[in-house]
Write a structure and sequence with these properties.
Blueprint: H1 15-26, H2 32-45, H3 50-57, H4 61-74, H5 93-105, H6 116-123, H7 127-136, H8 155-167, E1 173-189, E2 208-221, E3 227-232, H9 237-250, E4 256-261, H10 270-277, E5 282-286, H11 297-309, H12 317-333, H13 344-360
Parallel strand pairs: 1-4, 4-5
Antiparallel strand pairs: 1-2, 2-3
Length: 363
C-alpha cells in the first residue's frame, strides 16, 4: 500500500478570515511577506497538499507546513510575527496592518515619508513598536534608491547576451568588462586633515582645490578579477583605441577577446569600428541603455572610489595617476572576481515585478 505521509490537520476558514486573507494577498503594495503567507493559507484551505501549495506559490514544503501550523494555532495573528516569550502581545493584527498599509500607501502632512515619531503619533503606538513592525516587514521609509528603466528596444537580447558571458564564458577566450571612469579629480584639501584618535574620527575640511582631472580606463576580467588599466587626460575615441591596443598586447595570442561595454559614443565611433575590423579576435557586447548595473567594471570602480578616491588628497594630476596605477597594481596582486549569480530569466522576472508595482501604483 502506498504511503501517504502524516495526515495534515484540517484547515478551515471563517468568512471573515477568508476575506481578510484575500485582501492581504491581492493588495499590491502591502508587505510581500504577509501576502505570501496569506496565499499559503488560502491554498491550504482549498484542501491542497503542502507540496501542491509550495509549487503554486514558489516556496519550500517546510515553509508551507510552518504557516499552516501557525495559522491553525493562532489564526490571523499567527501570520504576523513569531511568538515571543514574555507578556502577551498588546498590539493587534489590525493595528499592525494599519501601520504597514499606512506606511506604504500614504504620507504624513508636510513630509515626504513617515518617521517612527510621526507614525507613533498617528497610531498611538510607541516608537519602538513602530520600529519593530517596520523591521518585521522589512519596510524602510527613510531610505530611497534611484533607478531608471532602460528604453532599449533590444533590452532582452542584450541581457541574455551579457549575462550569458558572465555565467558561461566561452572557451579559448577572455571576457573583459570595459569602461572609463572619467573626470577623476585631483583634489587638494585646503588644510591638512586631523588624524583619527580614540573617540574622534578623522576630520577633513569640506573645501578643496581642483588640480585637474584624468580618466581611468579599465578592463575587468570577469573570471579571475585581474584588471588591465590605463590613465588618459581625455576619453575620446583616440584614447579608447589606444586602450584597445593595450588590451590586445596584454591578452595572450590565440584567445578571443569579448568586451562588455556601455553605449557611450566613443565605443561605437567609426575609428573604433575600423580598428575592430582589423582585429577579428575582438567581439563587442553592448549593455542596454541605462543599465550600468550590468557592467561588472562599475563594481570595480566603486572599490577604487571607496578605497582611494573618497578621501584622496592630490596636489597634481600626475600624483593622482601614480596612485591609481599603484592601486590597480596592488589589486592585481590579489584579484577578486565578482560572483555573478542571477540568470537572465531571474533579472527579467525581477524587472517584471517592478513594472507591475509601478503600473499598479495608485490603483
Amino acid at each position: 500500500m502506498a504511503r501517504t505521509g502524516r495526515p495534515k490537520a484540517a484547515l478551515t476558514l471563517t468568512d471573515e478570515e477568508r476575506e481578510q486573507l484575500a485582501r492581504w494577498a491581492r493588495r499590491r503594495t502591502s508587505s510581500q511577506a504577509l501576502a505570501l503567507r496569506s496565499r499559503i493559507v488560502l491554498g491550504c484551505a482549498e484542501g491542497l497538499s503542502n507540496k501542491d501549495v509550495a509549487a503554486r506559490v514558489g516556496v519550500s514544503q517546510p515553509t508551507v507546513g510552518k504557516w499552516r501550523s501557525r495559522f491553525i494555532d493562532s489564526r490571523l495573528d499567527g501570520l504576523v510575527d513569531d511568538p515571543r516569550p514574555g507578556r502577551p502581545a498588546t498590539v493587534t493584527v489590525d493595528q499592525v496592518e494599519d501601520v504597514v498599509i499606512s506606511t506604504l500607501e500614504t504620507t504624513p502632512a508636510n513630509a515626504t515619508h513617515w518617521s517612527r515619531k510621526k507614525m507613533a503619533e498617528r497610531t498611538g503606538l510607541s516608537k519602538s513598536t513602530i520600529g519593530r513592525i517596520w523591521k518585521t516587514f522589512e519596510i524602510k521609509p527613510h531610505r530611497a534608491e534611484g533607478f531608471k528603466l532602460s528604453n532599449d528596444p533590444l533590452f532582452v537580447e542584450k541581457v541574455y547576451d551579457v549575462v550569458g558571458l558572465y555565467l558561461n564564458p566561452p572557451e579559448h577566450a577572455v571576457v573583459l568588462s570595459v569602461d572609463e571612469k572619467s573626470q577623476v579629480q585631483a583634489l587638494g584639501r585646503s588644510q591638512p586633515a586631523f588624524p583619527m584618535m580614540p573617540g574622534m574620527p578623522e576630520k577633513r575640511t569640506h573645501d578643496y582645490i581642483r588640480n585637474g582631472t584624468t580618466s581611468l580606463f579599465a578592463a575587468f576580467n570577469v573570471v579571475d578579477g585581474t584588471v588591465i588599466s590605463a590613465t588618459h587626460r581625455r576619453h575620446r575615441a583616440v584614447e579608447f583605441k589606444k586602450f584597445l591596443a593595450k588590451i590586445d598586447a596584454e591578452v595572450p595570442d590565440g584567445l578571443d577577446v569579448h568586451l562588455v561595454c556601455d553605449n557611450y559614443g566613443t565605443h561605437k565611433h567609426p575609428t573604433i569600428a575600423t580598428w575592430l575590423a582589423k582585429h577579428p579576435r575582438f567581439h563587442m557586447h553592448f549593455t542596454p541603455t541605462y543599465s550600468s548595473w550590468l557592467n561588472q567594471v562599475e563594481r570595480f570602480f566603486a572599490e577604487v572610489t571607496r578605497d582611494l578616491l573618497q578621501r584622496s588628497h592630490h596636489r597634481s594630476v600626475q600624483a593622482l595617476e601614480k596612485d591609481l596605477r599603484q592601486w590597480v597594481a596592488a589589486w592585481n596582486e590579489n584579484p577578486k572576481p565578482f560572483m555573478w549569480t542571477k540568470t537572465a530569466e531571474e533579472i527579467l522576472e525581477s524587472l517584471g515585478r517592478l513594472l507591475k508595482r509601478i503600473n499598479g501604483a495608485g490603483h
